Amino acid sequence: MIRYVYAHELDKHPRLVDEMFKDRARQFRDRMKWDVHVDENGWERDQYDPLGPLYIIYEREDGSHGGSGRLMPTTGRTMIGEHFSHLTDGVVISSPTIWEITRFCVSPSVRSAREAMHITTSLLLAGIDAGLRFGVEFYVAVFDEPMLRVYRSLDFAPDVMGAAGEGRKRICAGIWPCTEEVRDKMARRVAEHEQIAAAARELEFAIAA
């Protein structure tokens, strides 16, 4: 199931939170070899986690963390603006109707490709539903180029604004529309789409940034 959790509510979900930050370390530091900070608890957290973002978390049937992502408006500090502006030719992206999604992670404990794709699709749908709730028109994100194949397989390919690097280390900046049409296409792939939409409708805006 999908849980929408604001930063100030994380303490209500100790197991999910512990596993989310540990899974981020396993994905970004251990597998992808990013230069990220991991604390003494094994958590990967960065300077954007204290800014009050909205987390989308996929909780598996056994209560464990299956995957997650972090949403923030571009009117505040963003990764794409502070670390990846070279991918947008220095263009500043700042609008209440454009949000950034970062730290998109599927737990390394997920071994089945089918389950991994279901978690990915559910998280993307949840992001669209949250965006529609808050009047978001576009999402931006930075991602490894191999993810383009995944997005294309879901008919959810972004417009690529820029790319840099070679081989497996090549990264891209993309922008996706957040519309009812996109939502409907994604919902056809997720059996729990009505529950996700209902949870999104209950969201109140509580992002500090």
TrEMBL record:
GO biological process, one term: quorum sensing
Gene3D superfamilies recorded: 3.40.630.30
InterPro entries per UniProt: Acyl_CoA_acyltransferase (IPR016181), Autoind_synthase (IPR001690)
Pfam families linked to this entry: Autoind_synth
Superkingdom field: Bacteria
Molecular functions per Gene Ontology: N-acyl homoserine lactone synthase activity
EC number(s) recorded for this UniProt protein: 2.3.1.184
Record key words, sorted: Autoinducer synthesis, Quorum sensing, S-adenosyl-L-methionine, Transferase
Catalytic activity from the UniProt record: a fatty acyl-[ACP] + S-adenosyl-L-methionine = an N-acyl-L-homoserine lactone + S-methyl-5'-thioadenosine + holo-[ACP] + H(+)
Top-level EC class as recorded in UniProt: transferase
Signal peptide start-end: none
Family: Belongs to the autoinducer synthase family.
Protein name: Acyl-homoserine-lactone synthase
